[in-house]
Automatic annotation (TrEMBL):
Cellular component annotations (GO), alphabetically ordered: chloroplast
Ranges annotated as spanning the membrane: 48-67
The protein's name: DUF6737 domain-containing protein
Assigned keywords, A-Z: Membrane, Transmembrane, Transmembrane helix
Residue ranges that the Swiss-Prot or TrEMBL entry lists as coiled coil: none
Domain spans labelled DUF6737: 18-70
UniProt-listed InterPro entries: DUF6737
Keyword Transmembrane: yes
Length: 100
């Protein structure tokens, strides 16, 4: 797997299917959602609807991509890597090694 992992089979067996199990405390869903609400709240202080709408759109897009799409793709990659997909195994190893 490109030198990232010495024993790929053992590594993939021990990798959790849930990406949030490898993320640090500051990068958990509850912190991401809380930060998003804080950003929307701060944007709404001046009572400018357009600013609140722009901030909300950005936050909701980030939530969708990071909490939904990214987490789902990670899980699919782990399953594919365990089934022998080398590209998926490299992807998983890259993500996991960033947090270990």
């Amino acid at each position: 797997m490109g030198g990232l992992v010495e024993e790929p089979e053992e590594f993939l067996r021990d990798v959790p299917l849930n990406v949030w199990d490898i993320k640090p405390p500051w990068c958990q869903p509850w912190t991401i959602v809380s930060t998003g609400f804080a950003i929307i709240g701060v944007a709404s202080i001046p009572h400018w609807t357009w600013l609140t709408a722009i901030a909300s759109l950005g936050v909701f897009t980030w939530w969708y991509l990071f909490l939904g799409v990214y987490a789902s793709q990670y899980k699919e990659a782990v399953i594919a890597a365990r089934a022998g997909d080398n590209e998926a195994a490299r992807f998983v190893a890259m993500i996991v090694s960033a947090y270990r």
